[in-house]
Amino acid sequence: MRTYQLVATAASGIEAITGNELKKMGYNVQVENGKAYFTGTETDIIKTNLWLRTADRIKIVFGKFEAKTFDDLFEQTKALPWEQILPMDAEFPVSGKSQKSALYSVPDCQAIVKKAVVNRLSEYYHRRTRLPESGALYPIEVAINKDEVILTIDTSGSSLFKRGYRSEKGGAPLKENMAAALVMLTNWYPDRPFYDPTCGSGTIPIEAALIGLNIAPGLKRSFPSEEWNIFEEGQWDRIRSEAKAAANFDVQLDIGGSDIDPHMIAIAKSNAAKAGVADYVTFKQLPLAEFTTTKEYGTIVCNPPYGERLSDQEEIEVLYKEMGQVFRPMKTWSKYILTSELLFEEFYGEKATKKRKLYNGRLRTDLFQYWGTRPPRIKKELDAGETKEK
């Protein structure tokens, strides 16, 4: 098997979480803004596509060089061994972006990269006519920053947040990978209660259930690289079967969500069923102000209406004040609230233990964290023969 330089892209603010996911999978990782670099084989391309919860895409870093002229871009792109991955009939659209560089015209950069790859493949496959591009999809991206060119091939296709279970959603849904990141930023363990009192289409509780059950998030979707000939026959099926077998459905989970809108609750239940976690998550129609619990040491994670979703500032203030009135007495619970409202703490009535800047799409938000008291430690049994002084 060949070894590749790979990169897992992620939303700004959660790349470190993606990096930690990769480290737990056994990779050496270098994290940069929005990216986590690592090396791996074809097997690792499959595993990371199936298992990474917070990443956007897995890409092969195929070339990296400096270019200040179109000739430089063409010649260095053509010099790369594209035939190692792209077959003669590959379909390879080229996307691009450029910033702070001499080559600032993105359409021109895309056209030149496309031409260079066509020339390389035509020479290698001895084609005098146009390449057919009738085969598998190999999306190429040319990204230029401060004259440094990075050429990548996308193995994921549509973003990894598209798990395949959410057929319906609300007006401003939280992406699945961001929801997973919110869960992973908490102190929640699967043996403790978890709740989202503004659950909308249920994404946060569903992602918590997937984590608690150790279900690979990419199991219910397909990837364009499944059709690539760099993989051994049956390799995708084998590794997907291994991922399915890793799920633990014997875990007892206490995960719930509620929303004031009964239509959203119906959508949440449908999405949970499609995700395969309907038996592990409870949804019910309930106004936030009426939420109450006798349970202890739980975790609340929510993405309440704000800015983009609820334009009436007075309604926002009322909701956040209700949130404070309901949550503040729950001393043993930890609360994590994502919002773009800078005055949230004032409305909530308490200063957050910690804040973390995150981007929900292009919208700057903060994760306001209120840490609950820790559960008492279970006393360890005394070693045999040891006595306890009174």
User: What order do the helices and strands follow?
Assistant: EHEEHEHEHEEHEHHEHEEHEHEE
Second-tier CATH architecture of the largest domain: 3-Layer(aba) Sandwich
Count of discrete structural domains: 2
CATH class of the largest domain: Alpha Beta
CATH topology of the largest domain: Rossmann fold
The biggest sheet, with number of strands, parallel, antiparallel or mixed sense and barrel status, is: 7 strands, mixed
How is the secondary structure organized here?
Elements: E1 4-9, H1 15-24, E2 30-32, E3 35-40, H2 42-51, E4 57-66, H3 70-78, E5 94-99, H4 106-124, E6 140-145, E7 148-154, H5 176-184, E8 194-196, H6 203-212, H7 235-246, E9 255-259, H8 262-275, E10 281-285, E11 299-302, H9 313-327, E12 334-339, H10 344-348, E13 354-360, E14 363-370
Parallel strand pairs: 5-6, 8-9, 8-11, 9-10, 11-12
Antiparallel strand pairs: 1-3, 1-4, 2-3, 4-7, 6-7, 12-14, 13-14
Helix pairs in contact: 2-7, 3-4, 5-6
Description of the structure:
This protein is of the alpha/beta class and 390 residues long. The protein has two domains: 152 residues, VC0802-like, CATH 3.30.2130.30; 174 residues, Vaccinia Virus protein VP39 (Rossmann fold). It is built from ten helices and 14 strands. The strands form two sheets. It has a seven-stranded mixed sheet. Strands 10-9-8-11-12-14-13 form a seven-stranded mixed sheet, covered by helices on one side. Strand 13 and strand 14 form a beta hairpin. Helix 2 packs across helix 7, helix 3 runs parallel beside helix 4 and helix 5 crosses helix 6. The radius of gyration is 24 Å and the shape is elongated. The C terminus is likely disordered. This is N-6 adenine-specific dna methylases signature. Pfam families: RlmL_1st, THUMP, UPF0020. InterPro entries: DNA_methylase_N6_adenine_CS, RlmKL-like_Mtase, RlmL_1st, SAM-dependent_MTases_sf, THUMP_dom.
